[in-house]
User: Fold this.
Amino acid sequence: MQARLCVYCQAEFTPNKYSPAQKICSNPPCQTRRHSESMKAWRERNPNYFKFDESKSVIWLETQRSRSKVWRTRNPEKVKGYRQSHLEEYRRYMKEYMRQYRERKKPSTPPSPENPVSQ
Ligand SMILES: [Zn+2]
Assistant:
């Protein structure tokens, strides 16, 4: 194996026998630089990688939605059971929601004996 000069620091080094095409010496600063430049080069070669990843996540979301839809159609009893067990909660929530809704719609007249707050 012939010694050669590192393209970064110009130091003489002997290439690793498993990577004879090695152009960079094994000094840590040169290895760090090699790594960051290879990542940069990779990003330049793959400009759509991150865009692709976004579209993949949309597909993933769609898959999750359709899976949960399939689950609901296959398990109607479980869905019914869930609704049943949360019915009281839901009713209370709606009652409170409607109360607040009516409160907002009410004209802002302060309560008085002539105009009592109806509950
Ligand atoms: Zn070097």
About this structure: The chain has a mean pLDDT of 83. The chain has two domains: 4-45, 53-104. Residues 49-74 form the longest helix (26 residues).
